[in-house]
Design a protein that fits this description.
Strand order of the largest sheet: 2-1-3-10-4
Distance between the termini: 42 Å
Oligomer: single chain
Number of helices: 11
Helix content: 25-40%
Structural class: alpha/beta
Shape: globular
Strand content: 15-25%
Amino acid sequence: MIRFPLPTLAACVAGFVLAGHVPAAGAQSAPADYPSRPVRIIAPYAPGGTVDSLARAMGAALSSMLDKTFFVENRPGAGGNVGLSALAKAAPDGYTLGLGAANMLATNRALYKSLPFDTIKDFTPVGFIGKVPYVLVVHPSVPARTLPELIAELKAHPDKYSFGSSGQGNTAHIFGELFKVRTGTKMVHVPYKSSGESLQDLLTGRIQLQFFTPVDLLPHIRSGALRPIAIASSRRLPSLPDVPTLGELNISGFETPTWFGLIAPAGTPPAIVDYLHAQIERAKANPEVAQRLERAGVESENLSPEQFAAFIRQEVSHWAKVVKESGTAIE
C-alpha cells in the first residue's frame, strides 16, 4: 500500500512540466512560426474541478516544453456544451484548443435533443490524456461501510440521501442514476457547476454520496473525511487495493471510466495537430510523469489523433446505451 499522501490531479499532471527537460531527440519539429502568440485552452467547466485542473496542468506543461504561453479560459455551462460550442466556432489555426471529456464528447449527444455542434464533425482530436475510473464514496454520516449495507440503508430510507455531480448529464450523474436502476434504490440528484463545488458539500455532509475520480478523493479518504464503498472499474485501483469493484459485488455496467483529451476545431492544420500530439506523448513518456499518473488512477494510453477520433465514435455509441438504461434526463 502506498503510505505517503498522493497529489491532486493538477499536481499529478503538472509533472508533465518535468518532461520539458527530457532530451529533445526524436521530437517532432515545430511548424513554421507556431506558436507565435499565446494559445488558449478552453476548459468547459468552472474553476476548481477535474476538467479545470487538467486543462491548467496541460497548459503549464506545454508552456514549459515549448517556451510559449498556453493559458486557460473557463467557459462553463450546459454540461460542457457552452465551452465546446465556443471551441467549435473558433478559428482552426491552432491558437484555440479545448479540454474534452467523456460526457462532453459522448454522453451529451444522447442527453440533449440538439447541440450547437457536432461531436464528430466539428472537432479534431489532438492528444488523448487518459482514462480515469470513478470511486463511489459516502460521507461518514452515512451508516454504511460496505455496498450491501449502503443499498440496505438507501432502500430503508427512499430519497433521504442526496448524491452530487458536476452538472446535469455529467458521467457522475449518469452513474448515480444507473446505480439507482441496478440496485432498486432512490436518491436525490444535486448538480453543481464543478466537481470542486460538489466535493466541498460532500465533505460537509450537505450531500452524502457521489461518484468521484480518485485523484480528487485520495487525501480525504486517507484522512477519514470520506469513506470509499466501491470502484466503478473493471479492476481495483493500486492506490485503493482494499476497495472492491462494483463488478465484484455483482453490480455490472460500471466498467467504463471517464476520459480526457485535448481537442481542436475541425480544420486545424494537420502539421499543428501532429506537433502538439507529439509533445503530449513525449511528456507522457517521462517515467516520473507516467508513475504519477498511475498513482493517481489515470490509465494513460498512446492514441494517434486518428485513433482518438475512432475512440470517440465508439464512446458515443457506448454511452448512448448507458444513458438509455440509466434513464438519465436533462431537467
